[in-house]
Amino acid sequence: MIMDVTIYHNPECGTSRNTLALIHHAGFEPIVIDYLKATPSREQLVKLIADAGLRVRDAIRQKGTPYAELGLDDPALTDDQLIDAMLNQPILINRPFVVTPLGTRLCRPSEIILDILPEDAFSGPFSKEDGAPLLDEKGKRVV
């Protein structure tokens, strides 16, 4: 099966690596965008957030970022101001965003990717980097 898959990836992030591994496990060779080096445009970022059904605040990463130092927890800040901060400091963009013809998701946790890849794309087991099983020997989600 051929399907366009794009992942906005940070290779230093375990969740992002797990998500990319799941995409490969499903047999897809995605377009990988290291968003820290190739920051999406304002229009792309706004579209990713909207298409994923998120509020702008839901797409901001707090942990390991200058979120607090920049005062981004101020509820008076507008979406445009938050987007500006994310574009100026891409580490503030939560990750990984994944886009497929079946939808766009912020894949935190990584198994959210299963919602936007064909169910029959998986065969065989898959475990996350930490060893936690995600798919069984038939490629079905482990509950």
Folded structure, characterized:
By secondary structure, this protein is an alpha+beta fold. It has one domain (6-135): Glutaredoxin (3-Layer(aba) Sandwich). It is 22% helix and 15% strand. The chain is built from 3 helices and 6 strands. The strands form 2 sheets. The protein has a 4-stranded mixed beta sheet, sandwiched between helices. A two-stranded antiparallel sheet has the order 5-6. A hairpin with a 2-residue loop joins β3 and β4. It is elongated, with a radius of gyration of 16 Å. The protein starts with 5 loop residues before the first strand and ends in an 8-residue tail after the last strand.
Radius of gyration over all CA atoms, rounded? 16 Å
Q: Main sheet? A: 4 strands, mixed
Q: How many domains, as an integer? A: 1
The percent range for helix content is 10-25%
The first-to-last residue Cα distance is: 26 Å
Q: Name the CATH homologous superfamily.
A: Glutaredoxin
H/E topology pattern: EHEHHEEEE
CATH architecture: 3-Layer(aba) Sandwich
Strand order of the largest sheet: 2-1-3-4
**Regarding CATH, which class?**
Alpha Beta
Structure class: alpha+beta
Average pLDDT score? 95
Low-pLDDT residue intervals, each spanning 5 or more residues:
none
Strand share of the residues? 5-15%
Number of strands: 6
